[in-house]
Write a structure and sequence with these properties.
By secondary structure, this protein is an alpha/beta fold. The chain has helices spanning about 20-30, 40-55, 65-75, 90-95, 100-105, 120-125, 155-165, 180-185, 220-235, 240-255, 255-275, 300-310, 330-350, and strands at about 60-65, 80-85, 105-110, 135-145, 170-175, 200-205, 215-220, 285, 290-295, 310-315, 320-325. Helix 8 links the parallel strand 5 (about 170-175) and strand 6 (about 200-205). The structure holds pyridoxal-5'-phosphate.
């Protein structure tokens, strides 16, 4: 189907193509036969690599998608009478079609956020009905890092929240669909941001970061890991030809390709944010700490700008928009978009805006 819309998108990092090194890894794995369901040599190499990167307690499980990673991870942590605390804008709450509730039977208990982050004073209010048989019992805390608004929790913020959650006996999950972005922004290792903080489970994203598809559930607790293999199968998230997923992650981890990918997409987001900041009519919304840039745009510009580079309107009432970069965003994409903004400003000044 032909459209006059550019195929260069700021809609999502899901819109990006596959990183060539990762595609090559699939091609290289494509020979002969190998055992399935994680018993192939590449999947076993991946487990060795996961221990090197995430620490000795880490065990990784391949799953098909981010929602599957989150739901299976949480199913490992809570029972149906539990609630999982997350922000009111978390992917779990807003964008997973009620999958946690449908599949685990648990309740998502939301808290407000500031720039995408939850804070302890709001968490405290959820503790009051502990032990009340009429109320779901808080069982786990799920944080998103980087947040849905592209901001990153600092290590010190995470330490405080996790200490609070532990004191309450809660299990801790991190939704890390773009986790490498946070490690790049905070200049830390992946272990610093996960095992070293004492979390239980991490949903570690691949698809949004240059893979064809595939995510890892990384578990830092032996008992939970033992249960997880059955939960994954029951939840339809056990892939068979795991060698093609393992090959992608091995390449993603090799020579820190993950850092290179995160660094490039962040650099492009910074460039976009910088160039848009000085434009009249454009309002910058949140600190840019990963690959998402949030700006509020004049309503009349949106249709034209979306034709230049597609993006999503995040809030239909305020016209706050999310522009997302990825491993393959080019400086030309940014400059082309900003040039269109300038053109629209001039039309406004000349009085011929729509
Ligand atoms: C923070 C976050 N978590 C989880 C997901 C779910 O990923 P998937 O669409 O692969 O189920 C997404 C997807 O956009 C996401 O942004």
């Amino acid at each position: 189907m032909k459209t006059n819309q550019s195929s260069r998108s700021f809609g999502s990092d899901n819109h990006a193509s596959i990183h060539p090194q990762i595609l090559q890894a699939i091609v290289d794995a494509n020979h002969d036969h190998a055992p399935s369901y994680g018993t192939d040599p590449l999947s076993q190499d991946l487990q060795t690599e996961i221990v090197k990167i995430f620490g000795p307690r880490a065990e990784g499980f391949l799953v098909f998608n981010g929602t599957g990673a989150n739901v299976t991870a949480l199913k490992c942590l809570v029972k149906s009478y539990h609630s999982v605390i997350a922000t009111e804008i978390s992917h779990l709450q807003m964008d997973e079609c009620g999958a946690p509730e449908a599949i685990i039977g648990c309740k998502i208990l939301t808290v407000p956020h500031v720039n995408g982050k939850l804070n302890i004073s709001d968490l405290e209010r959820l503790v009051v009905r502990r032990g009340d048989q009429h109320s779901s019992q808080i069982g786990a805390l799920s944080l998103t890092q980087p947040t849905e608004l592209g901001t990153c929790y600092e290590i010190s913020e995470l330490k405080n929240i996790i200490a609070w959650a532990r004191a309450q006996g809660l299990k801790i999950h991190i939704d890390g669909a773009r986790f490498t972005g946070a490690a790049h922004f905070l200049k830390t290792s992946l272990a610093d941001l996960s095992d070293d903080l004492g979390i239980d489970i991490l949903s570690f994203g691949g698809t949004k970061n240059g893979l064809l598809f595939g995510e890892l559930v990384i578990i830092f607790n032996e008992q939970l890991a033992r249960d997880f293999r059955y939960i994954r199968k029951q939840c339809l998230q056990l892939p068979s030809k795991t060698r093609f997923m393992a090959a992608q992650f091995l390449t993603y981890f090799k020579n820190d390709l993950w850092r290179e990918i995160a660094a490039h997409s962040h650099e492009m987001a910074q460039l976009l944010a910088q160039e848009l900041k000085s434009q009249a009519g454009v309002e910058a919304d949140f600190p840019v700490q990963s690959n998402a840039v949030f700006v509020t745009l004049p309503r009349t510009w949106i249709k034209t700008l979306k034709t230049q580079n597609f993006f999503y309107v995040w809030d239909e009432h305020t016209f706050q928009c999310r522009l997302m970069t990825s491993w393959d965003t080019r400086t030309d994409d940014v400059h082309g978009f900003v040039a269109k903004v300038v053109e629209l400003q001039q039309q406004n000044t000349n009085g011929d805006g729509q």
